[in-house]
């Protein structure tokens, strides 16, 4: 009986090893709707810490996946809308509550280097079964990814906790709301800005948003973005917004 039990444990252990390798070896491929990057591959078999970026099936570069041991793990990649902002890497830690971190990657055309230009995070804190507060904070950065991958201390400063950056001292723009919103594709306004009926300067309306308001980008037309904004009364507004409102102009 003892020999049978030992044999069963050995077989079970081998099965777990094979299963874990199979799961870990999964290759995740994301199609990116962008001029410079049209595919990204997160390969857990060859290099878990990096994401490979491609254009027309040609490897451009490899960037960090921002996985954290014992912390947030890579979840998905989103395309961004303006020329500089290429992608947004989303990490999450669902086992310990709702906490997502977003890393925005851009290509600096002057230096031809990939940089981390914005880090933001979202948390949802529930006080009861029906009441909660959603908090979204963003922090502008301009750090070379090559420099970031070689400096663990720098990454620790860039990576936020649930209470903010650098030992809980929040730096950047934050907004709180009692409305449940998906911030994956969100941008926070850097200034008060008027809305437009069409992507033209002479189509300005009397409606405006203020610094810290959160908008979702739906479409780009030259220097304007078609955005979706959820009001505090759960009303959805879809208008055009100038790129300066979210610091996304490319001249």
Tell me what the structure shows.
It is a single chain. By secondary structure, the protein is mainly beta. It is built from 3 helices and 16 strands. The chain has helices at residues 2-24, 145-149, 152-158, and strands spanning 27-31, 39-43, 50-55, 58-64, 73-79, 85-92, 99-108, 113-126, 132-144, 173-177, 186-188, 193-196, 204-209, 214-221, 224-230, 236-242. It has a 6-stranded antiparallel β-sheet with strand order 5-6-7-8-9-10. A hairpin with a 7-residue loop joins strand 1 (27-31) and strand 2 (39-43). The longest helix has 23 residues, at 2-24. It is globular, with a radius of gyration of 21 Å. It starts with a helix and ends in a 9-residue tail after the last strand.
Topology diagram in text:
Elements (H helix, E strand, L loop, with lengths): L1 H23 L2 E5 L7 E5 L6 E6 L2 E7 L8 E7 L5 E8 L6 E10 L4 E14 L5 E13 H5 L2 H7 L14 E5 L8 E3 L4 E4 L7 E6 L4 E8 L2 E7 L5 E7 L9
Antiparallel strand pairs: 1-2, 2-3, 3-4, 5-6, 6-7, 7-8, 8-9, 9-10, 11-14, 12-13, 12-16, 14-15, 15-16
Question: Gist?
Answer:
This protein is mainly beta and 251 residues long. 14% of the residues lie in helices and 46% in strands.
Keywords:
251 residues, 16 strands, six-stranded antiparallel beta sheet, mainly beta
**Number of DSSP helices?**
3
Strand content: over 45%
Could you tell me how far the N terminus lies from the C terminus, measured between alpha carbons in angstroms? 77 Å
Shape annotation? globular
| Number of β-strand runs | 16
If strands are numbered along the chain, what order do they take across the biggest sheet? 5-6-7-8-9-10
Structural classification? mainly beta
Give the proportion of residues in helices. Answer: 10-25%
H and E string: HEEEEEEEEEHHEEEEEEE
